[in-house]
Amino acid sequence: MQQDRRRIIAGLAVLLAAAPGLALGQGSEIDVEAILNDPEAPASGNPKGDVTIVAFLDYNCPFCKKAAPDLARLVKEDGRIRLVYKDWPVIAETSVYAAQLALAAAYQGAYAKAHDALMATRGRLGREQIGAAVKAAGIDMARLETDLNARSASITALLRRNMAQAESLGLQGTPTYLIGPFRTSTQDYAGFKQVVADARKKQTSP
């Protein structure tokens, strides 16, 4: 399910204000390699999986949160899926803050902990709620703050790349999942499993 277009545009404006200099527009070229293999984009699952899922997500998106447990379950049970996370904070200013903290946590090997904690936190997130969720996940908050400050330029650059990639693909909202050659939105476990099966079948077809 897609978010209201006006809210998305407002969210984009928030991130652009925090990270000026990103040119967005219709007709942007799609860089498949960058989308699939950005070395700074967090990933989980099997790094040599035969199907890659690219997930464009926002921590204030209720549909992202609803789908997250089923997607995680499928990746774990299947064993042959590579999952790439694209933090795409388009709903609110706090979405940007949540994405920044999650990406900063990656420098201590804790992106997954931060991601799972934020996805499990219901409702629209406030800054204090975001910080509390990340802390409760067992993340070293002193190091997180240090990494957030020291790696600010890299984190901002990654968020800008994610945004540009979403724009090049013409995405309209979160969640959006690229599963092999398919694009889909909110799914339950059975839905994700079927799309992955279809992707495998498509990839082996002559």
Structure, described:
The chain has 206 residues and is of the alpha+beta class. It is 55% helix and 12% strand. It has helices spanning 5-18, 32-37, 62-78, 93-105, 111-119, 127-136, 141-150, 152-169, 189-204, and strands at 43-45, 51-57, 81-87, 176-179, 182-184. The chain has a five-stranded mixed beta sheet with strand order 1-3-2-4-5. It starts with a helix and ends with a helix.
Strand order of the largest sheet: 1-3-2-4-5
Q: With helices defined by DSSP (H or I, 4 residues minimum), what is the helix count?
A: 9
Please give the number of β-strands.
5
* Structural class assignment: alpha+beta
Radius of gyration: 16 Å
Q: Helix-strand pattern, N to C?
A: HHEEHEHHHHHEEH
Q: Tell me the β content.
A: 5-15%
| Low-confidence blocks of residues | 1-27
Helical content (DSSP H or I, runs of 4+): 40-55%
Overall pLDDT: 88
Quick one: overall form? Answer: globular
Terminal residue distance: 32 Å
Largest sheet: 5 strands, mixed
